[in-house]
Design brief:
282 residues, 20% strand, single chain, six-stranded mixed beta sheet, alpha/beta, UDP-N-acetylmuramoyl-L-alanine:D-glutamate ligase
């Protein structure tokens, strides 16, 4: 599909067009919905490619329906033809067939890609088929400017047990060897006994460097549905606005912290961060 010509209504650089390729959360707290809220709160214009429909709420996931890979690509072609995408992220990709199709289409795109290797929902429901893990590793990691696994996801992608700082560093090196441009191994799933002065640590790994510790205060809230989606979307927004990688990560951490501090339960079960809380902050 040919790209549309640009006109005088081009998106200003301060409001970049951003893309999320992920699943839809009918509960509104994670996935596509969280990404769009995050993009808007941080000053971007969000576009979407929906890889799966989920039936879920704060209590859990009760069903998943994925479109054919050809329709996923039809969405992606339409977005790329109509919008000057400045940065993108992937979330729930669900199947090996969808991963292969998306990777083929993104292989020659010029914008930075943040890969959130979503495997499980907050409630423990599988969001990535077992036979899709190898495809995620082989096809998506080499396209990633940054991959953002939590501890269970990093363990699944590397086959390692990750408990100590040395194991964190080893896992990051493994993911870099698999082709990721950079790795943010998130600290939220580590035991709170590893916190220092009430601060959890995310670890940023870049090729040829020691991992950089990026601590943030831990927020005491049960309402954490969609935190990984929110963080990766916030990083993509920063990259789309021209921030350097570490600066984009640090701003995204701050954004998520503010949103978690205002997290709430709009319905039953686990609620989401308040994605608009940032708009009230200096």
């Amino acid at each position: 599909m040919p790209r549309l010509p640009q006109d005088s209504r081009e998106t200003p650089a301060s409001r970049p067009c951003l893309l999320t390729i992920a699943g839809s959360d009918s509960g509104g707290g994670a996935g596509i919905q969280a990404d769009l809220k995050t993009f808007s709160a941080l000053g971007g214009f969000g576009t979407t490619v929906i890889t799966a429909l989920t039936a879920q709420n704060g209590l859990g996931v009760t069903g998943i329906h994925a479109p054919p890979p050809a329709f996923v690509i039809a969405q992606l072609d339409a977005v790329l033809a109509g919008f000057p995408i400045a940065a993108a992220k992937t979330g729930m990709l669900f199947s090996a067939a969808i991963i292969e199709a998306v990777a083929d289409r993104l292989a020659d795109t010029p914008f930075p890609l943040v890969v959130d290797p979503v495997c499980m929902s907050q409630s423990g429901h599988a969001l990535l088929q077992d036979d899709a893990v190898d495809a995620l590793k082989a096809r998506m990691l080499p396209l990633a400017a940054l991959v953002t696994p939590n501890r269970p996801e990093a363990e699944r992608l590397t086959g390692m047990t990750i408990e100590s700082p040395a194991q964190v560093a080893a896992a990051i090196q493994d993911l870099l060897r698999q082709g990721a441009g950079a790795v943010l191994l998130k600290g939220g799933h580590f035991d709170q006994s590893a916190d220092v002065d009430g601060r959890l640590t995310d670890w940023l790994g870049l090729p040829g460097r020691e991992p950089v510790a990026l601590p943030m205060p831990r927020v005491d809230t049960p309402h954490t549905h969609g935190t990984g989606c929110t963080l990766s979307a916030a990083i993509a927004a920063g990259l789309g606005q021209g921030l350097a990688l570490q600066d984009a990560v640090v701003r995204a951490q701050r954004y998520l912290h503010h949103c978690l501090a205002a997290a709430f339960a709009p319905g039953l079960g686990c609620g989401p961060p308040d994605h608009l809380a940032w708009c009230d902050c200096p």
